[in-house]
């Protein structure tokens, strides 16, 4: 019997969008690679998702008209989206944490389970691996809680054959911090908005969520699906004065709380392989290994977690040879005793939720 969507309840009944639709006029397939100029523009957006055309043009050495034209094409054709990162969504009070989920399903039932998970607002990331029966996902949750998805809904679904969950204990690198290596350090420094350091003694918001007042929450909700909305459009959507919008956006950015993320198919950047890495690391090497992974240009996610695989990472590579080199060379000397590698065949969901998850 196919699993019921009632078992995995939809939260916010929306179909999972296709983030990486490439420009069919300029590109033959999803495996096409963007031009060097477009890749540099994507990298500029990674540094500052709300960068102006004039500023990007100045740093990249092109005209503002070129930047506007290419941004219009890339965003308009769905090749690129700039959104508010899940790590910077308002928490709405309470603690915020996250679980890594590794789900194995009966062959033939993969798409049904994936669709049910993708419809949930509390699951911002879903990947399917090349094994054909395996799903990796991230679920927002309250730390230490008996999450109903893990404790009741997934285990009671007949199509689910195995479930592993691991709590994120420490974040070394999130995908919004990853930078495509096509800009010089000077160019990246010129584009990165200066953010004030957090106040001394301030508590970390954890993997997901920031504290926000009602005005900031309204702004971040409006920006969630399109972080490049101009101030005038935000004022119209929120009902706030444009001067207030500009002042609050500037404060969020200065405090490092306006975190944007560029959604783009890595294959369009020449990165054909994405791998998930589950690592066993000796406790006295865990922090150093996590920092080393976070500093590696291929790694777009690195987290200390509960469970036997106490360090999880995700990375992009140009090809399998580059992945092999990473495993055989770059991971040596880090105190890693065991590595399990899973190659992603399909990135199903790469988005922050557009509304707060339902309670219960």
TrEMBL record:
One of its GO terms (cellular component) is cytosol. Keywords: DNA-binding, Transcription, Transcription regulation. SMART domains: HTH_ASNC. Pfam families: AsnC_trans_reg, HTH_AsnC-type. Residues 212-272 form the HTH asnC-type domain. SUPFAM superfamilies: Dimeric alpha+beta barrel, Winged helix' DNA-binding domain. GO terms for biological process: response to amino acid. GO terms for molecular function: sequence-specific DNA binding. This is Transcriptional regulator, AsnC family.
